[in-house]
Amino acid sequence: MIELDSVTKRFERLTAVERVSLQIQSGEVLGLLGENGAGKTTLMRMMATILTPTEGEIVINGFSVRHQQVEVRRQIGILFGGEIGLYNRLTARENIAYFGQLYGIAPDRLARRIEELSEMLEMQDYLDRRVGGFSRGMKQKVAIARVLVHDPQIVLLDEPTTGLDVGAASIFRALIRQMKAAGKTILFSSHHMGEIEKLCDRVAIMHCGRLCYEGTLPRLRAMYGFTDLDELFLQVLEKEGER
Amino acid sequence: MNASLIWLIFRKELTDLFRDRKTVIGAFVIPIAVIPAIFFLVSVSMSGVEEDARANVSLVILGDVEQPLGQRLLQTEGVKRLQPDDPLASLHEGEVRAIVTIPDDLERHLRQNGSEQIRVRYDAANDKSVYAYDLIQRVIADYEQEVVAERLQAAGLEPSVIHPLELVEESVASEAKMTGKLLSGIVPLMLILSLATGGIAAATDLVAGEKERGTMEALISAPVPAGSILTAKLLTVMVMSGISSVAALVSSSLIIQVGPFSANDGGFALGFLGIGSILLLVLILLLLAAMFAGLELAISTWAKTFKEAQTYMTPVLFAAMVPSYMMLPLVPADIPLLYYVLPIFNGSALCKEIFFGEVQPLHVVCTLLSSLVYVAAVIWLAAALFRREKLLIH
């Protein structure tokens, strides 16, 4: 479970996130929406203890991000948007294994987990090749495997389907559903509205660092009277801009 | 800090770095192969110039060449007489090495106990011309000595009348000390420069590079304390610096044994060092490696991008070069006590003492204590920067 209580993050004069309060339950998938620079990545980085909130508190499965960083990190698997975060001179297997070892997974269990993930993400053919020569989609799959290697309870995914082809995106969606069924808490940021609709139980929309909507999609549709998700998203932002 | 996590990260960093061609070339190939190759090529080129200068001394001899001085010059090995239309132009063009003007009545004046001026024109900017001038000077000096001897004989005097003192040279320095003196110049210089440069590629890649590639963010989101990550990275940079300095030591020995500064005996150049000296040398090199590694990691953390880190690393090279070159001409007796507490100067000075075999306990204490303070300061700085969240995300 993720609990955010009036979380604010300032970088000198810039307020990247302002008084955001939110709860995500176990077994729930929450879609985080917002334009570039809305504060989505900053919010995820605070949940992953990479950034410390200026004000407010974040509690991950009962552990505070301020005071119990190592425990929080054990609960979380985070996939970053932008740069994928893989070592190009290591093989896919070495990359996944390295992070597995950092999480303290025993060698036998780690080997089994790598096989399981590579099968799940269909990457057996290139598991022992160096990542440097991979396509963006192949790298993205390895990065997802890295994030899931320690079987985290909380999964934070920033633009996870960027670079994935149709088949790979479908595999990924199946994986998300599987994790949801296993009771994981999933926070998912995407610009792909169709994907959000297919996977998420609730959505949260951010604008200029503030949370401007949090709830289910049917409720949002009822509030604004639009069925098209892109149109709906723009309406929310327009209304927020008028405030 | 967790030792097994430090070991895990350290092993991964080394595996990653050794798979990078740039790093391997920078750490091994350049110090072991390129530096001796440069010295070898320079020495071959210099001896080629010297050989040519000896073999082809083309002179223009003006005046009466039939006189004894003219004949002596012509009979000197390598001398060839040229008679160009414009001797001065030929000298400028390098075709002629020097122009000697012998007065027509030189021999007559000398017989009458007189003196004469021999004019030699040469190009001081041309090494071959300078060699020709030196040769002419030697021939004239020999001839002058004979004339003086004849004059003394005619006056019924012995040559010792004008040379009452004779210098008898006898050096008390042992062969080991002479080797140490030779090594004390070039080895500390190469060791310190390689310690500074050997870790730059690794430090740049391990923090600024990781930030840019997004792997730093992934690493700090894992349950690993920042102190363990930094310690592993510090050890990795130190190892790369150490490898580079060992490579430099081997190449220095090669240069000294087979290069232009070749020592006389064929044994390993460092064989004269005792176990205590070697341990002290290793200790001071470790402290210098830790200082450079801490500084380079701090710079790499401060830099926003890989390129920015590369630019900021340049002063590290100067910080290593300036003290090393300033120490180059000094012998231990000339080194002021202050140098034993200044960063980099202290390590370089103590290296000199070790190679000279004149290690002073006070200097050892000053060097080790001051080095420890500098190492602690740079590691503290690197750790402080490493814990600043905005510096670790790209």
From TrEMBL, chain A:
InterPro entries: AAA+_ATPase (IPR003593), ABC_transporter-like_ATP-bd (IPR003439), ABC_transporter_ATP-binding (IPR050763), P-loop_NTPase (IPR027417)
SMART domains associated with the record: AAA (SM00382)
Entry-linked Pfam families: ABC_tran
Ranges where the ABC transporter domain occurs: 2-233
Single annotated GO MF: ATP hydrolysis activity
Keywords: ATP-binding, Nucleotide-binding, Transport
Source domain of life: Bacteria
Name the UniProt record assigns to this protein: Sodium transport system ATP-binding protein
Organism per entry: Brevibacillus fulvus
TrEMBL record, chain B:
Topology in membrane: Multi-pass membrane protein
Domain ABC-2 type transporter transmembrane stretches: 22-380
Keywords, sorted A to Z: Membrane, Transmembrane, Transmembrane helix
Subcellular location per the Swiss-Prot or TrEMBL entry: Membrane
InterPro entries in UniProt: ABC2_TM (IPR013525)
Keyword Iron among record annotations: no
Keyword Oxidoreductase tagged: no
Alphabetical list of Pfam families matching this protein: ABC2_membrane_3 (PF12698)
Main location class: membrane
Transmembrane regions: 24-44, 182-203, 234-256, 268-292, 337-356, 362-386
GO cellular component: membrane
Signal peptide span: none
Gene Ontology molecular function: ABC-type transporter activity
PANTHER family reported in the protein's UniProt record: ABC TRANSPORTER PERMEASE, ABC TRANSPORTER PERMEASE PROTEIN NATB
Name assigned to this protein: Sodium transport system permease protein
